[in-house]
Amino acid sequence: MLRTLAVENYRSLRDLTLPLARLTVVTGANGSGKSSLYRALRLLADAARNGAVPALAREGGLQSTLWAGPESGNGSTGTVRTKPIALRLGFATDDYGYALDLGQPVPNSSLFDRDPEFKRESLWHGPVLRKSTLVADRAGPVVNARDGEGVWSRRQHRIAPSDSMLSESAEPEVLLLRERIRSWRFYDQFRTDPDAPARATRIGTRTPALADDGADLPAALQTIREIGDAAALDESVSDAFPGARVEIGYADARFTLRLRQPGLLRPLDAAELSDGTLRYLLLVAALLTPRPPELLVLNEPETSLHPDLLPPLAALVATASRRVQVVVVTHARPLVSALAALDEEAAVLTLVKERSQTILDGQGLLDRPSWHWPKR
């Protein structure tokens, strides 16, 4: 389970170190940095798929995503930067930790000389980086790793500066970390418009993990019914829509989502469902997955939902958090209150802006989790 998330110089997250729990609820006013925190988590996951550089490009490049304020963070303006540009991301569990440091390349004649480079990456045992606990360490293009006896191997792996060691190194500890990060799931792009993928009839295969766009929703729900927690599926639907039940139509290997409700002579198919009803069913499929990931992150799951659906959604999230670590990013206070009431151990993190910098409300210097960045 992730215990600590650290971000430095990413958008408004100039210097943020957060404690995480089995269920973590991130909230705050509009513009407080919630979306930036969500993107930072996704960027970490992208590194394991060698997609961090393209992800930054989609956001406008490194210069567009860097903290735009002064280096000191004391509110002064017009200062000249004296330190190397560094966007740093990292996390730690009880067993291991990982951090990356992205910066600008040395100017050259290439048209790609604005692509960010991995200046440093480190993987270590335990929750805090120490020289004695390093397992793999990357400086520039060179990756060094310890062998099975804990001795630094003489084998050196040279990789391109735009590639992460998570995707390019074959060391056992790095491979293990890569697969664990690749299991993380993010849901923030569910479409509910008339042409949404989830409304279409399509060929279905056994689907233990819902796609991030929800295109395989009928197959995912049927998979839960056959090899997952069918009782939890029925309960989650009935809590939200009393007396209702999900049915999956099947013809020529094509799956169709249907919702049978009391008082109707026939079930409604996906094309007839309201946006809120469809989104709730997508969240049911995501949270009741028969193949739980190490981390599941929901970004503003309350979108399009009627307020009456927030308590059932909170119950669904609380149930899922007993099997998988869940992070919920939301600005819906009723959802925050419901989650906190259902799980006394849930961590509610309220982000606020102070001099344009995102901070954790109420966090003092001594409240921050212990964290050390690898030096260049």
From TrEMBL:
Residues 23-332 form the ATPase AAA-type core domain. Keywords: DNA damage, SOS response. The keyword Electron transport does not apply. It comes from the Bacteria. The keyword DNA-binding does not apply. This is AAA family ATPase. It comes from Actinophytocola gossypii.
